[in-house]
Every structure is written in C-alpha cells, then in structure tokens.
Amino acid sequence: MALTQKQETGNEGEKLAVNFLRKKKKYKIIKKNWRHKSGEIDIIAQDGAVTVFVEVRARRKDALVSGYFSITKKKKNALKPVVEAYISQNYLQYFRFDVIEIVCDRENFEIFHYENIPFF
Predict the structure, then answer these.
(1) Is residue 45 over pLDDT 90?
(2) Is the pTM of this model over 0.85?
(3) Range of the domain at 82
C-alpha cells in the first residue's frame, strides 16, 4: 500500500531527526517507533545518563501551526502511558522529553531541537 504525502513527510522527518541526534548531538539511538498498546514514541535516545523521549514533527514552511505547537494536550495524553510503560519496563531514573521540529520546503530543511520540554 502506498504511503500518503503526510506519512512520507513524517518518515523523512524521523530519518533527518535520527541523523541529527546521532551526528550533531552525539546521542545514542536506543529505539525508533517504540510501540506500547495504542501509542508510539518516535525516538528513544541516550544523552549521557539521561534517556530522551523525542517527538518528531515535520512541517512545511507555510504551515499554519509549527511542529512544536502541534503537540496538543490530546497527543501528550496519548504519549503518557507509552512513556510510563517504557520507564517502568527499563527502570529509568533520569529521563526527559524533547521535540524535534523539521521545517521544510521542496529542497531545503531546518531542524529545531527543543530540549527538556514540559510534557505532562
């Protein structure tokens, strides 16, 4: 089955985010698209002793709402049990939430990394 334009943009955004985290930030990527029941975390990475849960948002330059502000309370509520399950299963002590926003046009893109955002 063919992917929609939105799915293709999302997949490409996640690839760019993974490369950014690995190469620019020197994070270790633990999991991509980790699922638990009905939810999914885009990227789980390690930044030193801290586990980082990353939500990736890819948007066109002319989007009405930025990727950062597109993470609604509903989305946060959907992510909460997924994140809590991962924390519980892996006995995590130190963790945080980041957002990576990919702003793109036809040929170029910019990456914005928001660290340690208030998620819940």
Answers:
(1) yes
(2) yes
(3) 5-114
